[in-house]
Structure formats: C-alpha cells, structure tokens
From TrEMBL:
Residues 8-287 form the FAD dependent oxidoreductase domain. This is Peroxisomal sarcosine oxidase. Gene3D superfamilies: D-Amino Acid Oxidase, subunit A, domain 2 (3.30.9.10), FAD/NAD(P)-binding domain (3.50.50.60). The lineage of its organism: Eukaryota, Fungi, Dikarya, Ascomycota, Pezizomycotina. Keywords: FAD, Flavoprotein, Oxidoreductase. GO terms for molecular function: flavin adenine dinucleotide binding; sarcosine oxidase activity.
Length: 381
C-alpha cells in the first residue's frame, strides 16, 4: 500500500465536470489531485435557462484562459406541439420548414429560436481543461477509486483505489469532490438506486448539393408520445470539426435503463431507439439518408445533458469546497433538501438491490430534469 502526501482537495472523476472543478481549485492556489479510472481524454427546466445564461460568462473566461474557442454559436431551434412548451412562439411551422430541412410537420407546430446557443467541441474542451489544470499545478493520476472514509483523528478524507490497474494506493485530503457521474455507486457503496439511461445517438448522411441539406443550427422537437414511445428528437448541424455532410440526430429517451455502470451493454446498442430515430429522419427530414445510420453510439446518462454547464458546475463545486458556498449552487433544484416531482423528499434510507430498472422494451417516463415540457435555451454538446 503506497500513500501519497496530503492534498487540500481530491476530485474523484476526470471527466469534463471533474476537470473543470480541478481547474478552478488549482487556480485558487490549492494543492489538488484529480483521479480518473480510465485514461484521460476518453470520450429543462426554467432554472436551467437562468443557469445557462449565467454560464456564458464563465465560458468566456475559460476560452480566454485557454486561448482558443471551444464553442460554435450556431443557435438553437425548439419546436413542436405548442401544448408541451411555454413562452411565446416566434417561428411558424412554415418558416421552420423553409429555413430548416424539415418536411411534413404537423400544421399546429410552433417554434422558438434562440441565437445565443451553440455546439461544444468536446475533445478540445477536455484537453484544454486537462492542460490548464496541470499548468496551474494540479496533480493527476489514473486510479480507480473503490472507497472513501473520513478519519476523525486528523479530520482528513481517505480515498483508496487501484493505481494503473495493479497497485493499491490511498490519498488524503481535507475536502473531496465526487464527480464521476454514472460510476458514483462504485465510490458511495452500496448503490443508492441510480436511474442510469443508456442514451443512443446516430449519424446520418445528408445531401451535399446542389440544393443540399443544411441545418443552420441545433434543434429539439417536442411531441406527444406514440404507443408509449417518446418522441423527443434532437439534432446538430454538420460541425466544422466533424466529417462533412454528416449530422447527429437522436431521441432524448432510453429504452434500456440500469442501476449500475457495470450493467452497461458494452457490445450492443438498443435497436428500438435507433429505429425510432431512423423513422423520424425518414418521415420528417428532407435530403437525409434514413436507410441506415453511418454510425451509432451510446453513453451513460444520469440527468440532463450537462455539458453546457461544465465551467459553471466546476466553479460551483470548487467554491463550495473552498469557501462553503457558491452563487451557482443557490438554485433550489441543486439543494439536497429538494423534492421529487411527486413532492416526496429525495433523501431516503433504503436497501437497493442491484439490477435493471427496466429491460429492453417500452421506454419508461422521462429523465429527471428533462426539458420535455419547457423550451430551454441552452448550449448543447
């Protein structure tokens, strides 16, 4: 067992949020260590609109410090069934189909366009945060954390794990930040019943021209469920850093839901979610090849898409461990005392069995914090 020196803060999780928190702690001239189990560089509500607006200034600061742009501000179109959204419509269905390559949309559809939204270039974001954390003096280790404990004799947290897949090790810190997302149950044992969604997405070829298919911005469609299948589709334009004439389109739902990251279907992608998306592309997008996606991918998700909030979440976490509070954490939706949608408290004590929440089949409900019933202006990813 090897033991390192003490740290002011240890960050468990080296994804974008964990790296952003490490970056903010290191900028405050504190001794900080970030731990990631894999190699580094792996790849809705009303309050969210407020948080997204607050995040813009923090994004500007990060890009200034990085010396490069990490966003492409292309705008965002929210559209669909007007009974599922809030706010005044700004774009009629005719204008939507004139400016964006949609077709055969219901005549009742309305839209809301927000120009101050964009697409995040994730790989440079992660590389930039990793570089800046080291520039500010942070340490980084590839360590799979398997437990934490608090030592009352010295008031330090003990973080134990396996370094580089073979060496048992431990680290000590006055404060810790847990930012390892769907893998949190491996640290906070036993599992406390996470509802983890295996989100799928697909990439489709589009007509290169003449009169080619061009999406001028991101978009999100709100629509009622059909046969218990969610119809919340979204998409991105062909981005400057991606392959030409290929767009990402997906359904904001998951048929397969699990309670522990170890249950992830590593070698399969849910065919029903892909088929829902393919049918939407066939029926409502002009100039896109819906016969077969160019590429399908999947990721684990436990909440809303938070990439647009990465700098703000990192700053909030850093300020909370360093100073005891942050303006970004003042939103009641982040409070540990907040309520579930049915009014029950989120805090509970119970024994949770490991297992699937729902197996392959009918999609269940919506993701906690989903933007399903509100038109949210946000930066996507």
């Amino acid at each position: 067992m090897s033991t390192t020196t003490n740290y002011d803060v240890i960050v468990i999780g080296g994804g974008p949020v964990g790296l952003a928190a490490t970056y903010e702690v290191a900028k405050a001239v504190r001794k900080v260590l970030v731990l990631k189990q894999n190699n580094f560089y792996n790849q809705a509500e009303d309050f969210m609109a407020v948080l997204a607006k607050e995040s813009m200034d923090v994004w500007d600061e990060l890009e200034k410090d990085a010396g490069e742009s990490l966003r492409w501000m292309s705008g965002l179109l929210n559209f669909g069934d007007p009974t599922l959204g809030e706010g005044s419509p700004e774009v009629t269905v005719d204008k939507i189909q004139q400016r964006w390559p949609f077709k055969d949309l219901p005549s009742s559809y309305e839209g809301l366009y927000a120009p101050d939204n964009g697409v995040i270039n994730v790989p440079p974001l992660v590389r930039t945060l990793s570089r800046l954390t080291k520039d500010y003096g942070a340490d980084a280790q590839r360590t799979k954390v398997n437990g934490i404990s608090f030592d009352t004799s010295n008031n330090l947290w003990n973080v134990s794990g396996i370094r580089h897949g073979k060496d048992n090790t431990s680290y000590h810190a006055s404060k810790i930040i847990i930012a390892n997302g769907a893998y949190v149950s491996h640290v906070l044992k036993p599992s406390f019943g996470l509802d983890i969604w295996e989100i799928t997405s697909s990439y489709f070829n589009i007509n290169a021209g003449p009169k080619g298919t061009i999406f001028p911005s991101m978009w999100f469609q709100f629509a009622p469920d059909v046969n218990d299948r969610l119809r919340l589709f979204y998409g991105f334009p062909a981005v400057p850093w991606g392959p030409p004439n290929v767009v990402r389109i997906a359904v904001d739902a998951a048929t397969r839901r699990i309670t522990d990251s170890d249950q992830r279907a590593a070698c399969e992608i849910n065919a029903e979610d892909i088929e829902d998306t393919r049918n939407f592309v066939r029926d409502h997008i002009a100039g896109a090849d819906a016969s077969a996606p160019v590429f399908n991918s999947t990721c684990l998700q436990t909440n809303i898409s938070a990439m647009r909030f990465v700098p703000s979440l990192g700053r909030a976490l850093a300020e909370m461990v360093l100073y005891g509070g942050s303006k970004f954490s003042e939103h009641e939706e982040f409070h540990i005392t907040r309520k579930n949608a049915d009014g029950s408290p989120i805090l509970r004590q119970a024994t949770v069995k490991q297992g699937l929440v729902s197996k392959l089949g009918v999609q269940k409900g919506q993701r906690s914090g989903s933007s399903r019933h509100s038109r949210v202006h946000h930066i996507g990813h």
